[in-house]
Amino acid sequence: xxxxxxxxxxxxxxxxxxxxxxxxxxxxxxxxxxxxxxxxxxxxxxxxxxxxxxxxxxxxxxxxxxxxxxxxxxxxxxxxxxxxxxxxxxxxxxxxxxxxxxxxxxxxxxxxxxxxxxxxxxxxxxxxxxxxxxxxxxxxxxxxxxxxxxxxxxxxxxxxxxxxxxxxxxxxxxxxxxxxxxxxxxxxxxxxxxxxxxxxxxxxxxxxxxxxxxxxxxxxxxxxxxxxxxxxxxxxxxxxxxxxxxxxxxxxxxxxxxxxxxxxxxxxxxxxxxxxxxxxxxxxxxxxxxx
Length: 291
Prior knowledge:
The protein is built from nine helices and 17 strands. The protein is of the alpha/beta class and 291 residues long.
């Protein structure tokens, strides 16, 4: 078991739940500030979505990503930057014609989902390796689109974080690896507890871990009240961890959390288990990221 745990902070996510939290980071300045604070508390990676500053709704605007990234880089923080590519993947069948997207549909072509990756060249970007029911829409990631995205991410020299929500997603990720579309030791994120996907249980974590390639660098997270149990389970099994307001709004029952507090608690759990949070440099080395 490697002593260091790569801890990721997912600062705000793409769920429109900002109205449920009194101090949710929405503007680029707020998101960047939370990223910098999380890094100072022990997060080696920050996972970033952006939101429209006026409405608070999720956005794929490259200009918003640019402002967040520039603020982090200008701060002098060495934290590894992980940008989402999930925006533009939702489909809701229309009521009149199910083949035509209705309200909630955001589908765009695969390379359109990588515009900000092309422009900003982050250390890491996500690649959601499969489709599933997400809320009241379908999160659409077809094999053809995934191959196009994986190939372009590889050409850009960005490390893909393979986000897997079900065991079958791991099997397709392994196919991408076999096809030469993923370089080096693959980086997997086991996403647990999302409604209509894999539950955040020890049994599912064990099954999904067992399906990973032998050289995988893996992390796991659970949402809501399962956030910290999954931190403990992943860290105790040699894995890495993720916390943040994208996954959980509370520190304790009825007590709203900040990203900083969630990272601080995860660091305490990691240390109680005899491990240490990795520095960004240590994380980059393990992930094969050249900076």
